[in-house]
Design goal:
With about 325 residues, the chain is α/β, with parallel strands linked by helices. The chain has 16 helices and ten strands. It is about 50% helix and about 15% strand. Helix 6 links the parallel strand 6 and strand 7.
């Protein structure tokens, strides 16, 4: 029995040693969890999906959990309530939080897209298009105060159209239901993201006639942001996150629409590959995908102009108040 006891003790010791070694290895190689909330699922965010699928986040030691939160208000609520660590959403939402006098402001730290991502889709194909054709028509726009709607109104006014007087503007439909409303017969024109715009073209439900991204210029349209408290506590994680974004942006800039589409297809399981390729190509050609995560002052001021034009800006929030480019600048200079 004594020998059996000694054997059991020895086995137990070996098992404990193995467990400690495994735990030690696991601790060394463990990935840091980061929860991302994206405002919608769109080809518009291709670099984000590339960063996940090509393993750029994992290379930086991060394990990202992606949730689609559908709508800027819902995304910001998720961030402020700590349901997510990082939000991918329009910079205007961080300005709204700042205007409310938050003690823990939301900080923009890595830009993903630099133009509006919506397109003007007409129900009928007139052969040639001019913006005057919208006058007197029903236009199915986006949610009031959201970046798509503000950029849309900015573009319409730039084209000499008063969106509240020259056409019937509908903007009380939930973001996720806008495409379905148009498909069911509401409106003669609609403002849509890809791939929905291309899907409607293929199905004969509409025709892309103009790009709001081209017309409204460079904007910090979609940016990764976190609460200031999170960034202060997790600076190393935020830097690694931004490095992964930079890697993805460089990869997207140097690859074809077909290669990008094949990488992001898992995020659009019910979509036709040709539609995804077409959508990526449109965004690439108009320079929508930012080539680095830096949010510069000129883009910020254009955003403020767009918000001011929409009547959504109480006061101009300075660029350096809720934008921190230190992570993006380091990523751009060090990531190859």
């Amino acid at each position: 029995m004594w020998k059996d006891a000694k054997k059991l003790t020895a086995v137990a010791g070996i098992l404990l040693l193995c467990a400690s070694v495994v735990a030690g290895c696991g601790g060394k190689d463990a990935l840091t969890k980061v929860k991302i909330g994206e405002v919608t699922r769109s080809v518009f965010y291709a670099p984000e999906y590339v960063a996940i699928e090509r393993g750029f986040f994992k290379e930086e030691g991060l394990d990202v959990e992606l949730t689609t939160t559908f709508g800027g208000d819902k995304t910001m609520t998720a961030l402020l309530s700590n349901a997510v660590d990082v939000a991918l959403v329009g910079s205007e939402t961080s300005i709204y939080v700042a205007q409310q006098g938050s003690e823990d402001p939301v900080i923009n730290f890595a830009q993903l897209t630099q133009t509006d991502g919506t397109f003007l889709v007409a129900r009928e194909d007139s052969g040639t298009f001019s913006w005057d054709q919208l006058k007197g028509k029903t236009f199915l726009g986006q949610r009031k105060g959201g970046m798509p709607q503000m950029a849309g109104e900015f573009t319409l006014e730039k084209q000499g159209i008063d969106p509240h007087a020259d056409l019937e503007l509908i903007q009380n439909i939930e973001f996720a239901n806008i495409a379905a409303a148009f498909a069911s017969g509401t409106g003669q024109y609609v403002q849509l993201f890809e791939p929905q715009a291309s899907i409607f073209e293929k199905e004969g439900k509409g025709h892309v006639v103009a790009s709001f991204g081209v017309e409204s210029g460079h904007l910090p349209y979609t940016v990764f942001m976190s609460k200031q408290s999170y960034i202060k506590k997790n600076q190393d994680t935020v830097q690694k996150f931004t490095n992964a974004v930079q890697k993805a942006q460089a990869w997207v800039a140097s690859h074809t629409p077909e290669e990008i589409a094949d990488t992001i297809l898992p995020y659009f399981k019910d979509a036709d590959r040709a539609i995804i390729v077409s959508s990526v190509k449109r965004y690439q050609e108009q320079g929508t995908y930012a080539t680095d995560p830096i949010l510069d002052g000129a883009e910020w001021n254009n955003l403020l102009d767009v918000m001011d034009n929409a009547g959504e800006l109480k006061e101009r929030v300075a660029h350096d108040v809720i934008v921190d480019n230190t992570f993006a600048e380091k990523a751009k200079s060090t990531v190859k």
